[in-house]
Design brief:
The structure holds two protein chains of two kinds. Chain A has helices at about 1-45, 50-55, 65-100, 105-115, 120-135, 140-165, 170-175, 180-195, 195-210, 235-245, 250-284. By secondary structure, chain A is mainly alpha-helical. Chain A has two domains: about 1-45; about 50-285, MetI-like fold (Orthogonal Bundle), CATH 1.10.3720.10. By secondary structure, chain B is mainly α. Chain B has a single domain, classed as MetI-like fold (Orthogonal Bundle), CATH 1.10.3720. In chain B, about 75% of the residues lie in helices and about 0% in strands. The longest helix of chain B has about 35 residues, at about 30-65. Chain B is flat, with a radius of gyration of 28 Å. Classes of the chains: A mainly alpha, B mainly alpha. At the A-B interface, α1, α3, α4, α5 and α6 of A face α2, α4, α5, α6 and α8 of B.
Chain lengths: ~280, ~325
């Protein structure tokens, strides 16, 4: 009896230690998030003024804002999403509807999963080699969009495949039974019923690419001026952040924090919206 | 006119015959399948393209330096002497250190969310951990350099360095400049970045454990800790290794955060507080300004090394995880 009591006590202590450990590490993880968000608000909010949204990036010591970088980022992400949605949805559809268990389908599926977490800087190198070094011979917004698109495609392909597989077979059968060609069933039945799932994937992909810096460093590069020409160097928030944060000037560093605040809040906002959309979908 | 009337009249009859009018758009049926197939193939081509372009771009470096490209730690753009051993070691060391810190933490978070967290808090805390994954890499870098590094220097580096007895192994590990950057600081930031990925995968895995299995363990009188360590964790062990490998894959290729805080020196790192570099941080720092020729080729060649390492790690991770993991 005495032994068993000691054993119970020791098990209780071990369990207490385990539970305490779980609580502590969760607290640590959350405090990192809080610390980062706090820093962003503290350093970023102070620098937000009307100049940020009306003027182009300045040289050190002069007035300026982030207008060109904001426009550039929006354009780069927009075209990247156009590319990624087209290719990603079609590829996901092929994987879900046509590939079946074929060997080729398995290979594509597997490599898509690998591509999901592949280092983004290597995608940048690839696009630099193909587009900047060999096709266009200069840095350009298009190269940046293609690089971002390549990062977003696997995310969208994966989510599209997943949600389309979730659609009931009866849906496909009833479409075909009406004499509808299968590709019309896909377009007007399956895509429609999978829409909110695909939207979630698209939002997550968008959130992922909008903060992506590494592949833009040597594709879109940067631009001091406001430009809408995708064929030229394109200013964008992440690269501006990189250059200004590492500069020695306090005013430029302050702008970098404003940019960081804008990017992080958009990314976090989109992520939360995406979660909300997928929650709605589960409810119905 | 009579002909038209006749065909109209014949129509219903034709429908019962085999000569039905093809449904609208059926001509594009095959084309659509090919377009989808092409899109899927584009994915394959992208991955193949990355490999081939890195191989072609990096070939001059391999051809010029041979084996010494992998074994030498000289990185000298002025004299066009390049060896990638330093960044390779830096990449591997920071990633492994990051995993060492992130894995227990991520497991703790996942266990907390699955077993301990009160119901109404599950969603907000789960979302908060996922938001940690959403913060852009470069913001981690800025935070690491401007906020974390001064704190780290003052409360970790300096005390450890002054407390280390001269001549001991501790002193060897903690030598360097206590400016808050370096190998260990980069590993800690990396750990925070990969933590949410491992935690989310772990959480999903733990949720696949059938309720009966857990409940019967509880029914036998097991404590929460025992249920987790002796029942649910062994149940998903294969996936756990996959989750860790996935985190490793992320850590290996992480670029911007590391670039900010690792200190960017190209030799072998000599201690935990020494400045170092990783393959990704070297490329990010130098590529846009690299001179065409051997410097560019060496950077691309080091990219190929990174590609091969991460590909192997990620492929193993996916094999272990099967298809249960989403994004």
């Amino acid at each position: 009896m005495a032994i068993s009591a000691a054993r119970i006590a020791s098990r209780r202590v071990a369990n207490g230690a385990f539970v305490a450990f779980c609580y502590i590490v969760t607290f640590v993880a959350l405090s990192f998030l809080t610390a980062i968000l706090w820093t962003l608000l503290q350093k970023g909010l102070g620098g937000v003024n009307i100049d940020v949204f009306t003027m182009s990036t300045p040289a050190a010591g002069s007035r300026g804002g982030l207008l060109n970088a904001i426009i550039g980022s929006v354009m780069l992400c927009f075209y990247a999403m156009v590319i990624a949605l087209t290719v990603g949805i079609l590829a996901g559809t092929w994987l879900a509807e046509y590939a079946g268990n074929s060997r080729y389908g398995t290979v594509v599926r597997f490599l898509n999963d690998v591509l999901l977490s592949a280092p983004s800087i290597l995608i940048g190198l690839f696009v630099w080699e193909v587009m900047v070094a060999n096709l266009l011979h200069h840095f350009s917004g298009w190269a940046g969009s293609v690089a971002l698109g390549l990062i977003a495609i696997p995310v969208i392909a994966r989510t599209t495949e997943d949600v389309m597989r979730l659609q009931p077979t009866a849906l496909r059968e009833s479409g075909i039974a009406l004499g509808t060609p299968f590709w019309s069933v896909i377009r007007s039945v399956l895509w429609r019923s999978a829409a909110s799932g695909i939207l979630t994937g698209a939002l997550l992909a968008f959130a992922r690419i909008s903060g992506e810096t590494a592949p833009l460093l040597f594709t879109a590069l940067n631009n001091q001026f406001t430009s809408l020409d995708m064929g030229r160097e394109m200013a964008n928030l992440p690269v501006v952040m990189f250059n200004y944060a590492l500069s020695a000037y306090e005013d430029l560093q302050r702008l970098a924090w404003v940019a960081a605040l804008i990017v992080s809040m958009s990314v976090l906002g989109i992520t939360i919206i995406a979660r909300f959309v997928s929650r709605e979908q589960k409810r119905t | 006119m009579t002909e038209v009337a006749m065909t109209a009249a014949a129509q219903p009859q034709a429908a019962t015959d085999q000569r039905r009018v093809a449904p609208k758009g059926s001509g594009l049926e095959v084309a659509f399948e090919y377009v989808c197939f092409a899109a899927a193939t584009l994915l394959l081509a992208a991955l193949g393209g990355v490999l081939v372009s890195l191989l072609i771009g990096g070939w001059p470096a391999f051809a010029h330096f041979g084996v010494s490209f992998f074994t030498s730690s000289t990185w000298d753009p002025v004299n066009d002497e390049f060896g990638v051993a330093g960044p390779i070691v830096g990449t591997v060391v920071t990633s492994l250190l990051a995993l060492l810190l992130a894995v227990p933490t991520a497991f703790g978070v996942a266990f907390f969310l699955v077993e301990l967290c009160p119901g109404p808090l599950k969603r907000p805390i789960g979302t908060a951990v996922e938001l940690l994954a959403g913060i852009p890499s470069i913001v981690y870098g800025m935070w690491g350099l401007f906020v974390f590094a001064p704190v780290f220097s003052k409360f970790v580096q300096l005390p450890l360095m002054t407390a280390a007895p001269p001549g001991s192994i501790w002193e060897k590990f903690t030598q360097g400049v206590p400016n808050g950057t370096g190998i260990l600081a980069a590993s800690i930031i990396l750990a925070v970045m990969v933590l949410p990925f491992i935690a989310a995968t772990m959480r999903e895995l733990l949720n696949t454990v059938p309720a009966q299995v857990r409940e019967s363990a509880y029914g036998l009188g097991a404590t929460t800790g025992e249920v987790v360590m002796k029942v649910t964790l062994p149940y998903v062990r294969r996936g756990v290794i996959g989750a860790i490998m996935l985190g490793l894959g992320r850590a290996l290729g992480e670029t911007m955060a590391v670039t900010f805080i690792i200190g960017n020196s190209h030799g072998f790192p000599k201690s935990l507080f020494d400045a170092g570099s990783t393959i990704a941080s070297t490329i990010a720092n130098e590529f846009a300004e690299a001179a065409p020729g051997l410097h560019t080729a060496s950077l691309i060649a080091s990219g190929l090394v990174l590609f091969i390492i991460t590909f192997i790690v990620l492929a193993l991770a996916r094999m272990m995880l099967g298809r249960q993991r989403s994004v």
